Amino acid sequence: MMTSTKTTNRSDAMRAAWATRRAKVAKAPRHASTAKATAPKDAPEPIPAKTAKKRAIILSGLKCCCGCGEMTRKTRAFLPGHDMKAKSGLIAGRASRELRERASTIPFLNDPRWKKLLQEAK
Fold first, then answer.
1. 105: which residues sit within 8 A by CB, 6+ positions away?
2. What residues contact residue 103 under an 8 Å CB cut-off, 6+ apart?
3. What is the distance between the alpha carbons of residues 116 and 109, in angstroms, rounded to a whole number?
């Protein structure tokens, strides 16, 4: 009966690969706190990607057009749901300063009835 040498060679190769991986893992630090301790003291701490992204959004944003005063993303006129606040404000006869200033960039204000309400609003 013949045995296949392919499976034996392959299993030996896999055994060697896993032994290499285990050796690398054994040398690597397990927690972020130990990784910081091994880093050089003069190296700057990296800024987490989420923090940098949030900072960029806040710095490049504009005030929400509904009048709440919160910052939006770079290309947005409203925070989620705040366009309805602005619409209800227009129906009630009030409009925020931001809404009046950026009216040309807000898509729903291209409709003639919303333009009319914006002109009538104080």
1. 77
2. 109, 115, 118
3. 9
Greatest mean pLDDT among 1-5, 61-65, 108-112 lies in: 108-112
Which residue carries 């900072």 as its tokens?
55
pLDDT tens-digit map of 24-66: 888 776 665 555 555 556 656 655 656 666 666 555 677 888 8
Task: Return the residue matching tokens 């947005």.
Answer: 76
The pTM (predicted TM-score) of the whole model is: 0.47
CA–CA separation, 35 vs 43, rounded Å? Answer: 13
Structure tokens at 114: 């919303």
Distance CA 78, CA 72 (A): 6
Q: Which of 100, 106, 105 is nearest to 121 (CA)?
A: 100
